[in-house]
Write a structure and sequence with these properties.
Elements: H1 15-27, H2 34-47, E1 51-55, H3 58-68, E2 76-80, H4 86-93, E3 97-101, H5 112-116, E4 123-129, H6 138-148, E5 151-155, E6 163-164, E7 167-168, E8 176-179, E9 192-196, H7 199-208, H8 217-222, H9 242-273, E10 279-280, E11 288-289, E12 295-299, H10 307-316, E13 322-323, H11 343-351, E14 352-355, H12 363-377
Parallel strand pairs: 2-3, 2-4, 4-5, 5-8
Antiparallel strand pairs: 1-9, 6-7, 6-11, 8-9, 10-12, 12-14, 13-14
The structure holds pyridoxal-5'-phosphate (PLP).
């Protein structure tokens, strides 16, 4: 059997990325330096944040954001179980305890009610995820956190280009962390960005990502006088390189086109699948816009084929789909961790799948994928021999 021909996701690169990397190589400065600074400035402007701090991954950024806010041993941090495992791992990395909350069945995100259900006197923070780019209801969560005196941090790994009440995700003043892994809307291979409006937080994040150093290597290099750096605290090497940032700058310039294309393809899927009432498809919530980083469909009770079988049918047709978002509490790494009832999370994790959506996907392929799903819904699939 031949390999699937349509991937679930593919990055969009052009000659500009190649040229940008070649320029960095020719400059002789490849670690964190002027390109990282330029990428940070462009990113902050794009989302409307005062500060942006580039890091080696979103996971590293979440770790730093929690540590810089003083979260550590003894603290409980509410997270969704319905997320990529890094959301919970980052809480563990700072020695705090992730507490799994259930999610809204439509947005697949935390709400004030699901957070309130697991709150304890040890709760000090909420790590809200904008799952697959779908914005969470930030005002509602911020109101709850304000009332309880909790820190609210955004795992915006998938949400670059999404917005909440007309303002881009990352531009709401609090700390938000983005990913540039190839599964996200723009990529630098690996990489992440933290945004914040708080200058004290920004300075601390900048220091923690580079070994706790008082002055960056690039600043020392640029100075005509010898500069002796100091190490003010125990930090990390969570830096992004100038090679990656050069790619990121070009990719950021493509963001509007990428999001526009995804919204167009998502609408095509919605139009094709609209006749199937046994399938729920994603769309914008009334308070914001999603970037359709993922196109997650939920199979309802009338769907004639099981979720895993549908993945097999799609694979046989040369289409690489994926199960929906994982439930972290079911993974071996969290088996003994403990959790309350998570019925919506478990239902969504079992009954959803992610269809291919990426910039170069064409409309006729969307139509073909939708047809395979429709046939499976009616139990008409044929599995190729
Ligand atoms: C991808 C992802 C991460 C991890 O991002 P990395 O840059 O790979 O560390 C964290 N949280 C969520 C919700 C993600 O989707």
């Amino acid at each position: 059997m031949s390999a699937p021909s349509t991937p679930v996701m593919r990055p969009w690169f052009g000659d500009e990325e190649t040229a940008a990397v070649a320029e960095v190589l020719a400059s002789g400065w490849v670690a964190q330096g002027p390109r990282v600074a330029a990428f940070e400035a462009a990113f902050a402007e794009r989302v409307g944040a005062r500060h942006a701090i580039a890091v080696s991954s979103c996971t590293a950024g979440l770790h730093l954001a929690l540590e810089a806010a003083g979260i550590g041993p003894g603290d409980e941090v509410v997270v969704p179980s319905l997320s990529f495992i890094a959301t919970a791992n980052a809480v563990r990395h700072v020695g705090a305890r992730p507490v799994f909350a259930d999610v809204d069945p439509v947005s697949q995100n935390l709400t004030a009610a699901t957070v309130a259900a697991v709150w304890t006197p040890s709760t000090t923070a909420v790590l809200v995820v904008h799952q697959a780019g779908m914005p969470a209801d930030l005002d509602q969560l911020a109101e709850y956190c304000g009332r309880r005196g909790l820190l609210l941090v955004e795992d915006a790994a998938c949400a670059l280009g999404s917005s909440y009440r007309e303002t881009p995700i990352g531009g709401h003043g609090r700390t938000a962390v983005f990913s540039f892994h190839p599964r996200k809307v723009i990529t630098t291979g690996e990489g992440g960005m933290i945004t914040t409006d708080d200058p004290v937080m920004a300075t601390r994040l900048d220091r923690l990502r580079q070994h706790g150093m008082s002055v960056s290597a690039a600043a020392r290099h640029a100075s005509a006088q010898p500069v002796i750096e100091q190490y003010l605290e125990v930090g990390y090497n969570f830096r992004l390189s100038d090679l990656q940032a050069a790619v990121g700058l070009v990719q950021l310039g493509r963001l509007d086109a990428i999001v526009e294309r995804r919204r167009h393809l998502a609408q095509r899927y919605r139009d094709r699948l609209t006749a199937l009432d046994c399938v729920a498809v994603p769309g914008d919530p009334d308070y914001g816009r999603t970037n359709f980083q993922g196109f997650i469909v939920e199979l309802g009770p009338g769907f004639a084929t099981g979720r895993n079988e549908v993945l097999g049918v799609l694979a046989a047709a040369g289409i690489s789909a994926r199960r929906g978002i994982m439930a972290i509490h079911r993974e071996p790494a969290y088996r003994d961790h403990g959790h309350g009832p998570l019925p919506v999370t478990e239902h969504l994790s079992d009954q959803t799948l992610i269809l291919p959506i990426f910039h170069q996907l064409d409309e006729t392929e969307v139509d073909r994928i939708a047809e395979v799903v429709i046939n499976a819904a009616h139990g008409r699939q044929r599995i190729a021999a």
